[in-house]
User: Fold DER reductase from Urocolius indicus.
Amino acid sequence: QCPGIEPLCLDLADWDATEAAVGAAGPFELLVNNAAVALLQPFLEVTRPALERSFDVNFRAVLHVSQIVARQMIAQGVPGAIVNVSSQASQRALWDHAVYCSTKSALDMLSKVMALELGPHKIRVNTVNPTVVMTNMGRINWSDPQKSAAMINRIPLGKFAEVDDVVNSILFLLSDKSAMTTGSSLMVDGGFLVS
Assistant:
């Protein structure tokens, strides 16, 4: 649909492959870090593989890809914008989400530090923090009607987010309409965090 966009298919947890592929791409002016996994386990049953995979994809890959892209933006000397897709789970404890909540909280703070350090280079960094989004992953983890009803009942707007709700928020944060916004988290949660 978008000529000029070249997709790269790689395992973001593979540091060297990511370095080679993303480093050879560009030039960049915008970046959206959206890759994530949600390996849900009760706190007492968290496994090392789930912990490592979650931090590899949800946190470490964002840091690494952002480093590569930000270095290119700085070398070009042009303003840029980075949006990291976080979650309402960064702000609220959820059953069986010990690792997921932790990776998203870490991502929120990483984004603030990135905003602080990249701001002098005219690179803005923000997060969007959606509620459950009806993606494939969202449907897998929230397909149980009893589980989903309990969450929806805590959302004042009474529904989960659709992909377009998140996309539109990302587009705003990438655009000049948010030229003075950096280091912020845009909640796309239907009011979950105020309930």
